[in-house]
Amino acid sequence: MKINRINPVIFIVICLFSNFSLSQNYADVLYKNATIWTGNVSQPSAEAIALKDKKILAVGNFNTLKNLRGPKTKVIDLNNHFLMPGFIDNHVHFFEGGAALASVDLRNANSKHDFSTRIKNYAQKSAKGKWILNGNWDHENWGGTLPNKSWIDQDTQNNPVFVIRLDGHMALANSAALKLAGITKQTKPPKGGQIILDNNGELTGILKGNALNLILSIIPPPSEQEVLTSFQLAQSHALSVGLTKVFAMTANETETTMLSDFQLAKAKGIMKIRAYVYTPIEHWRNLENLVKTQGKGDELLSWGGVKGFVDGSLGASTAWFYQPYTNNPNTQGAPLTEPAKLTTLINSANTAGLRIAIHAIGDQAIDKLISNYELLAGNDITDLRLRIEHFQHPNQAAINRISQHKIIASAQPYHAVDDGRWAEESIGNKRIKTTYAFKSILDSKAILSFGSDWPVAPLSPLAGIYAAVTRRTTDNANPDGWLPEQKITVEQALKAYTFANAYAGFEEDIVGTLEKGKRADMVVLSHDPRAVLPEELLNIKVLNTIIAGEVVYTADK
Fold it and tell me: For 451-480, what is each residue's pLDDT tens digit?
């Protein structure tokens, strides 16, 4: 019998190629013994996941995936801890949050004395002439009386002070800051803004809405080192709460350096968290030119979206409603951006191919914005993934309209348990029925995405999930939940923090669920949030945050 002999050289090549092919299929990392929530409806759970080249190689049971273990594969036993897609935050003020961590903290100040003492103590440690900023105070913590510059003037003569209410739509300036800005009791406020005077016609130091820009425009820009410090503080905090990506939002039209600040952090090699940056809609043309010349960024840092404002906030009584405020019948709020101007800006940004996210809180503001979106000529707006930031006080008709057009309700659930302490006093029991209406939004088949609005609210997604699931207000006055009919399930909240945000960012094919070929962006939790009592959600600990297969955060043991 004739035997066909293989050329020795060909045989060696075949063997080498076979070994190379096999090695290409080995995982870099193999996680086993985990409770995995994939977010993928066709394979909702698993116990093991294999990673290779910063992506997911396979998801399933360990007996199947162990064949992907090669000589260099790192096998990690998760000891039954919970693994899920990395959290994505739909709305953060990243650098403001980092700066707030380094500044005076007024978030839980609960009295006039506490408020003024914290500022006094911070001023004593500050260099002469240094601005004291941020703060994030809430006057509802001490009964609703607005602070006054007289509370702090005596102790801050050497430092201009501009501390902002936690919603970002009202602030207190001391006399030094007002003087630098040239603001007197005769100063006419800009349209969409208010300069609050007392009963004697004197400045209180309180500014609302667009009047904040009178001060913001004169605050010296931070140094490069201050920018990097703010970034590092914000990033460390974000990674520690399980975030793998943030949508970074401009806070006002004067905030024009945020994108360059992110680019600086990336250029310095310190950026680990992914970010998509929304810049002011008023400067859409600058962004259009940037996209034409530099593209839209990469997987780590990207841009191409604009953010605008219809109205202000409920806490500042500047959210725009059809009817006056119940506890302030002299106002129904007002638009921050003149409606015709906003229409032009939205049309221009859309024509330029930019993504659009607009802040709208009151029922009239929301309706006007939806009408603006519906008028975008020549487009099927269901494909644009238009966003309404906050979407706090819609009527049912508005909920139905966003469902019809696939407009994204970009909500921040912690606001519900914060504002729920006093919201009904502001707008009454009828309008309150569809406030933070998470279940109604989902029942209508609309798209609900979640985030924090940090530093307005806590950055932790677990805190947001707790708020959405329990609706227990922060004053503990509603143990069964405030408007409990709007509670949602843990799994619905998880999806709003993962897949829904990926969809909002046109990335549902590459992130947001744990599936083969998607980015290896994941988080490991100490417990399965679906398996604990709702009130215990806040006790869950983030153990690891993983971005592109790299562990970028590990909790202290």
Answer: 999 999 999 999 999 999 999 999 999 999
**Predicted confidence band at 25 (pLDDT cuts at 50, 70, 90)?**
confident
Q: At what angle do helices 396-405 and 363-374 cross, to 10 degrees?
A: 30
> In the 8-state DSSP scheme, what is residue 379?
S
Find out whether 136 and 107 touch, Cβ atoms under 8 Å: yes
C-alpha–C-alpha distance, residues 233 and 379, integer Å: 41
Looking at every residue in the chain, the average pLDDT score rounds to 93
The tens digit of pLDDT for each residue in 165-210 reads 988 889 999 999 999 999 999 999 998 899 999 999 999 999 998 9
Residue among 273, 216, 288 nearest 88 (CA): 273
Residue with tokens 């029922």: 363
User: What is the pTM for the complete model shown?
Assistant: 0.88
Q: Which token pair is 169?
A: 């739509």
How far is 158 from 164, CA to CA, in rounded Å? Answer: 19
HSE-up of residue 524 (Cα within 13 Å, Cβ side): 26
pLDDT at position 8: 47
Nearest-CA neighbor of 504 among 449, 424, 463?
449
Confidence at residue 166, expressed as pLDDT on a 0 to 100 scale: 84
Q: pLDDT band at 36, cuts 50/70/90?
A: very high
Boundaries of every domain in the chain = 8-80, 111-216, 221-551
| pLDDT surpassing 60 at residue 22 | no
pLDDT of residue 76: 97
Q: Who contacts 351 (Cβ-Cβ below 8 Å, separation ≥6)?
A: none
In Å, the largest CA–CA distance within the chain is: 116
Tokens (6 digits) for 459: 């950055």
d(CA 158, CA 126): 9
Which is nearest to 451 in space by CA: 405, 514, 388, 396? 388
| 191 SS3 class | coil
Categorize the per-residue pLDDT at 9 as very low, low, confident or very high, splitting at 50, 70 and 90. very low
The position carrying tokens 């004053």 is 475
Domain 221-551 annotated CATH 3.20.20.140: yes
Q: What is the CATH number of domain 8-80?
A: 2.30.40.10
Say yes or no to pLDDT of 32 above 90.
yes
**One-letter amino acid for residue 199 of the chain:** N
| Phi, psi dihedral angles at 13 (to 5 degrees) | -60, -45
How many residues are listed for the chain in this entry? 557
3-class secondary-structure state, position 454: coil
**Using CA of residue 390, residue 392, residue 395, residue 396, what is the dihedral sign?**
positive
Nearest 5 degrees, angle CA 498-CA 284-CA 337?
90
- Angstrom CA distances, 22 to 15, 49, 440, stand at 11, 18, 51
At the topology level, CATH places domain 111-216 in Diaminopimelate Epimerase; Chain A, domain 1 (3.10.310)
DSSP symbol at 50: E
Q: Which residue has the tokens 């139905």?
A: 400
